What we know:
Largest interface: A-B, 78 and 78 residues
Strand order of the largest sheet of chain A: 1-12-2-8-9
Shape of chain A: globular
Oligomer: homodimer
Mean pLDDT of chain A: 93
CATH superfamily of the largest domain in chain A: CofE-like
Helix content of chain A: 25-40%
Radius of gyration of chain A: 19 Å
Low-confidence stretches of chain A: none
Strand content of chain A: 15-25%
Largest sheet of chain A: 5 strands, mixed
Distance between the termini of chain A: 47 Å
CATH class of the largest domain in chain A: Alpha Beta
Amino acid sequence: MTRLEIIGLEDFGDVRRGDSISELIVGACVRQALTLTDSDVLVVAHKIVSKAEGQILRLDEIQPSARALELSRELGKEARLVEVILRESRRIIRKGGGTIIVETHHGFICANAGVDLSNVGLGRVALLPRDPDASARKIREEIQQRLGVAPGIIISDSFGRPWRLGTVDVAVGVAGLRPVKDDRGTSDRYGYELKASVAAVADELAAAAEVVMGKKGEIPVVVIRGYERKGEDGSAQELLRPEAEDLFRSF
Amino acid sequence: MTRLEIIGLEDFGDVRRGDSISELIVGACVRQALTLTDSDVLVVAHKIVSKAEGQILRLDEIQPSARALELSRELGKEARLVEVILRESRRIIRKGGGTIIVETHHGFICANAGVDLSNVGLGRVALLPRDPDASARKIREEIQQRLGVAPGIIISDSFGRPWRLGTVDVAVGVAGLRPVKDDRGTSDRYGYELKASVAAVADELAAAAEVVMGKKGEIPVVVIRGYERKGEDGSAQELLRPEAEDLFRSF
């Protein structure tokens, strides 16, 4: 039977700068009597990675630029927060309704550059990890050193979407799995050759994990069991649509 | 332990016009010795619903309009297919690269109005169900009549996204569950009030289901077990962002 299991790691505790995410994962698995295997995929909420890597800023230490002050007035959004968003961005894609949609230095297009005020302490904001693929690889390598197994790793964040309400989690960092599942060139049972069948499976696994994680940070890591992980490498960059093929970037 | 199970229903066989999806689901569950409960959520690929409802067209019976012929030349896309897409649409949002992004009569914004050539037979196309929420409610009511339990139902389709490559499944029809999980107004462990924490959980469950379904139609229905389904009603329309709040619709 085709069956996927999505298991939340609980009692993770608060993550602090310098903590080892792999050590915390291994500890939580031990407490839950969960034996990781090479075929598991772990989805890790980016927030705890950002905390461990010190990607947390105190807003009262931020000096807003003239541009941030101008945008702050235009959008009714706190100037220091706008300043942090601008620093994390290559460019603004769109703004309005109190939201700035930007392209981050990583190439992600998302609201507020992924800068987030929840689950980090009052007056603080979490940035995305500087290089989420590298963060994912580090977690994977350390788990392999500790346990001798190398599960796939996805680092996730909650992104909004145009046209649809609500956030859906996506992969911002990937290690040890192909982020897309490409069925192009194969045929369906009628002999029709599949032409557009590329599923963003790392995003789908991140979305699945969010259902278990929730939004309050209690379950920051989820083990996905039963997915036939393909490949040993992969990058979240592969999920980014090149600008030339994008109908909703340049106006 | 917080755990979600995603179980594929196999050996579904080909679905034909007039077939009862609920009867096929009940049959597949019996063969897999799977006892459905009120707290399960079933994700049903829209393709089998469209087939059962006769939402399949033969392209050689379609007469393209002048507008379809013009767009066909512009996009290098088959004129009969373009004609079907136009008939399924309220308006075109964007076009280019062989793709037309439209707003369907339901209000979904997606490529090619959800008109799909795979898994329906050569020369045929599947449309979306005419009223996917109603289709979901019908499946739910019939399962309740047959088994005395009423699981939540999600009808799913694979949508592309701006900015990111690959498709991710989303909910186009919903019955018996709240499609969004609204944590706004509650606080995180630091006392920060969550302001933007609305997860599109029906979309996340649809995405999770796709990982098990795959793209070749062998597993058109998935049972999700362990999700704490809220509410007895809900509509996929609740997942649509109102135009006035949308930064990527009107240019």
